[in-house]
């Protein structure tokens, strides 16, 4: 299929990435994943908005207007005839002789924007039955609000989960639950949905923001207050959200059953409400 490099669609096979691209050498860049449902981009504006915010926080100026980027991404999805899938997009600080400090303006280094599409089915079966998780220490830096390419701690946590036969790693800082390795985490007690506040300890997920709206619209208490591992293990229900996992029930954590071991009433209701938003 086609990909985007800079401001153009081109064949994937023709593009070359410079060995000294700073994304490749330093993880010096930011990214987004956007879902495509039945050929339509879901919350594209929000994702592209966050991409510009993340870039700004690390002092990258994207050499493209947001409207132009949205246009290009829509063209890409149409051209590749994506039905149920996703778009991966990233911006790096560009290619320059390797040295930690930013390239000087004189070097005329330009940030590199790339994007490509994937066909991915919705995780219907997993959403219906729920998945298992492990807990892991959150060893990331203190700017988790930036969707940066530096994902090594996330990769290591997800691998721990995978090796334990689990779907996600729930991260905590000395007992305070932050988020998942690639998702946001929620507990449900007495009809109240609770999650970590959107500060520098977590990525404010676009799915999280959609869920928040959905709770408000349906008079479901949505509480942004951090909780502990103890709260996690005692919760009536636990679930995670992300672009690719949508609203995913967690039915077992570190080998211990959550609730009665099946997706709870609240998470099933939220899934139904979310479903109405996306199609
Ligand atoms: N991950 N927290 C982290 C650390 C994430 O990496 C993600 C998304 C989320 C959820 O954000 P959103 O609802 O906007 O997808 C929370 C993407 C999907 C990924 O890296 O593949």
Structural write-up:
The protein is an alpha+beta fold and 279 residues long. The protein contains eight helices and 16 strands. Helix 6 links the parallel strand 11 (192-195) and strand 12 (222-224). It binds N-(5'-phosphopyridoxyl)-D-alanine. N-(5'-phosphopyridoxyl)-D-alanine is lined by residues 33, 154, 179, 182-184, 203, 205-208, 241-244.
List its traits:
D-amino Acid Aminotransferase, Chain A, domain 1; D-amino Acid Aminotransferase, Chain A, domain 2; ten-stranded mixed beta sheet; 30% strand; binds N-(5'-phosphopyridoxyl)-D-alanine
- CA distance, first residue to last residue: 25 Å
What number is the mean pLDDT? 98
Low-confidence stretches: none
Strand content: 25-35%
> Which series of helices and strands comes N to C?
EEHEEHHEEHEHEEEEHEEHEEEH
Ligand inventory reads: N-(5'-phosphopyridoxyl)-D-alanine
The CATH homology group name of the largest domain: D-amino Acid Aminotransferase, subunit A, domain 2
Q: Over the alpha carbons, how many angstroms does the gyration radius reach?
A: 19 Å
Q: Roughly how much helix do the residues carry, as a percent range?
A: 25-40%
Helix-strand category: alpha+beta
CATH class of the largest domain: Alpha Beta
CATH topology of the largest domain: D-amino Acid Aminotransferase, Chain A, domain 2
> Number of domains in the coordinates?
2
| Count of helix runs | 8
CATH architecture of the largest domain: Alpha-Beta Barrel
Write down how many β-strands occur, each being a DSSP E stretch of 2 or more residues.
16
Catalytic activity: D-alanine + 2-oxoglutarate = D-glutamate + pyruvate
Enzyme class: transferase
Subunit structure: Homodimer.
EC number: 2.6.1.21
């Amino acid at each position: 299929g086609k990909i985007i490099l800079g401001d153009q669609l081109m064949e994937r096979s023709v593009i070359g990435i410079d060995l000294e691209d700073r994304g490749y050498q330093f993880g010096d860049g930011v990214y987004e994943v956007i879902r495509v449902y039945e050929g339509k981009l879901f919350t594209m504006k929000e994702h592209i908005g966050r991409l510009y915010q993340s870039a700004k926080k690390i002092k990258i100026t994207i050499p493209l207007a947001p409207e132009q980027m949205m246009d290009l991404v829509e063209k890409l999805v149409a051209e590749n005839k994506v039905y149920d899938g996703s778009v991966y997009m990233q911006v790096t600080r560009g290619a320059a002789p390797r040295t930690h400090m930013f390239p000087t303006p004189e070097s005329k280094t330009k940030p590199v924007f790339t994007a490509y599409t994937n066909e991915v089915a919705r995780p219907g079966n997993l959403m219906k039955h729920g998945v298992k998780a492990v807990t892991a220490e959150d060893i990331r830096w203190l700017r988790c609000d930036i969707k940066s390419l530096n994902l090594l701690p996330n990769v290591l946590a997800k691998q721990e989960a995978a090796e334990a036969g689990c779907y996600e790693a729930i991260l905590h800082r000395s007992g305070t639950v932050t988020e998942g390795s690639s998702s946001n985490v929620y507990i449900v007690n007495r009809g109240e949905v609770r999650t970590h506040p959107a500060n520098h300890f977590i990525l404010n997920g676009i799915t999280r923001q959609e869920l928040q709206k959905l709770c408000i619209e349906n008079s479901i208490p949505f509480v942004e207050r951090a909780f502990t591992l103890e709260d996690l293990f005692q919760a009536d229900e636990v679930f995670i959200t992300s672009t690719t996992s949508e609203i995913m029930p967690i039915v077992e954590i570190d080998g211990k059953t959550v609730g009665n071991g099946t997706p709870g009433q609240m998470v099933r209701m939220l899934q139904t409400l979310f479903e109405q938003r996306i199609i």
